[in-house]
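Supplementary Methods. Inverse-folding protocol.

Structures were first reduced to a discrete structure-token string of length 421. This string, shown here, constituted the complete conditioning input.
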């Protein structure tokens, strides 16, 4: 299926101010959690992205009414009447599996098409099922569908083998209406988990410990609608900071929570970039080469896997040799082949990629295979010699709101060529 493409002029020094949008990976679980109340929930600062539109489609299919205007999303789940998320919807966005917990808590049962893997890995759900079963949920998998049901949810003791973000979120949203107390140990600690705890508690839940490895949920009888503002997107913010370094520019990124991007700031400083943090904005000015450094992706607060491709793009032009180790996903090096087409010198040894810095990348015809690989190639095109044609922009649309406008305002020269029907 052909997708839109970007034609990007290289060697454009970017400078100015850019404001990050709300976080996609916070908004998706928050949207799913609105199913838990029989009222209306207003989410502010929701980014207008294709993943968000797909989740709105899922909620509509389940019977919720939604209204999305100027980044404010109103979800009325009083009219919830469905219980199946079909294959077509699941294929559009695997994050739809986040309705599992809320639907079991609200409706007692749900049927979702097994989410397909995606470019970066098989994305199993064994930890989701392990936790839900501890709460009394029966899970059946057949004909490519997952059927989950529970007569009565009861609190349980759950130990996650992997601090899975999605599994932590599905267990939290199932446990809030369970009878008794649930403990989740080895829980994911990402900021998006804390944002979900904050929404749930505003709805009347009793959740504590998000952001640490141990989360305690005391079940309540009922939850109500509320209002909540989505946290800023730490991955979008990090992407913009890298754009400043790669183009030798000067960019101030607004609407950031500095603590959420501390691993990114630390690595940029290690490479010699000048990063100044001032309240809710971070500024990066950089001239000349960055010194090479190594990266190892880990669960939060370790270095985020969602920034790995963008940092690899940066390191292709660093002074020296870098090693990037991807410990979270088993197939998150698809951007390597495309970066190599642009003149990068990278070899892959299992989970590690060894990058020898080159003076500059060259424009080429390249293709985005997934969201963050697309972001990495977008940044590379802005820094490379000559022009680049970047195919597969639909992947980038999933995670970056108003990317063209934001980058044109910083001085980028790019055109979007819409796919021919
Ligand atoms: C969330 O995915 C994010 N997506 C991902 O962002 C992010 O990369 C990931 O967390 C890690 O931070 C959303 O929040 C919508 P995991 P999720 O469960 O929840 C394995 C992006 O680019 N695993 O923490 O699916 C899994 O295969 C996306 O915005 C199991 O083995 O991630 C992976 O190797 C990409 N069994 C690792 O754990 C399970 O039951 C981490 O997965 C669940 C996960």
């Amino acid at each position: 299926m052909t997708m839109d493409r970007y034609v990007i002029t290289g060697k454009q020094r970017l400078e100015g101010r850019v404001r990050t949008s709300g976080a996609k990976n916070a908004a998706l679980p928050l949207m799913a959690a609105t199913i838990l109340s029989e009222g209306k929930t207003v989410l502010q600062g929701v980014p207008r992205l294709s993943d968000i539109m797909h989740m709105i489609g899922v909620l509509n299919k389940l019977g919720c009414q939604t209204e999305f205007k100027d980044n404010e999303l109103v979800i009325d789940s009083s009219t919830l009447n469905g219980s199946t998320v079909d294959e077509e919807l699941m294929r559009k966005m695997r994050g739809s599996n986040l309705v599992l917990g809320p639907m079991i808590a609200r409706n007692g049962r749900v049927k979702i098409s097994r989410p397909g893997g995606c470019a970066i890995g098989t994305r199993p759900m064994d930890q989701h099922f392990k936790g839900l079963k501890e709460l009394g949920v029966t899970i059946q998998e057949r004909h490519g569908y997952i059927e989950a049901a529970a007569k009565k949810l009861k609190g349980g003791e759950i130990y996650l083998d992997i601090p899975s973000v999605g599994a932590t979120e599905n267990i939290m949203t199932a446990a809030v209406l369970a009878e008794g107390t649930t403990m989740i140990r080895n829980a994911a600690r990402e900021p998006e988990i804390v944002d979900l705890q904050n929404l749930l508690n505003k709805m009347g839940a009793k959740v504590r410990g998000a952001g640490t490895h141990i989360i305690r949920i005391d079940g309540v009888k009922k939850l109500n609608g509320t209002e909540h503002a989505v946290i800023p997107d730490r991955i979008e913010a990090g992407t913009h900071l890298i754009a400043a370094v790669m183009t030798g520019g000067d960019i101030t990124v607004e609407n950031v929570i500095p603590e959420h991007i501390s691993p990114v700031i630390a690595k940029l400083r290690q490479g010699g970039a000048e990063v100044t943090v001032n309240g809710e904005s971070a500024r990066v000015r950089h001239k000349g080469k960055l010194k090479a450094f190594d990266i190892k992706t880990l669960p939060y607060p370790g270095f985020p896997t969602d920034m790995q491709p963008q940092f690899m793009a940066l390191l292709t032009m660093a002074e020296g040799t870098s090693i990037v180790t991807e410990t979270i996903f088993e197939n998150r090096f698809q951007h390597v082949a495309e970066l190599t087409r642009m003149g990068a010198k990278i070899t892959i040894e299992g989970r590690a990629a060894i990058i020898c810095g080159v003076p500059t990348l060259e424009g080429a015809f390249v293709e985005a295979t997934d969201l963050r690989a697309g972001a990495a190639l977008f940044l590379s095109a802005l820094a490379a010699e000559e022009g680049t044609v970047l195919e597969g922009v639909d992947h980038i649309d999933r995670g970056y709101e108003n990317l063209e406008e934001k980058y044109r305002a910083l001085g980028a020269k790019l055109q979007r060529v819409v796919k021919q029907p």
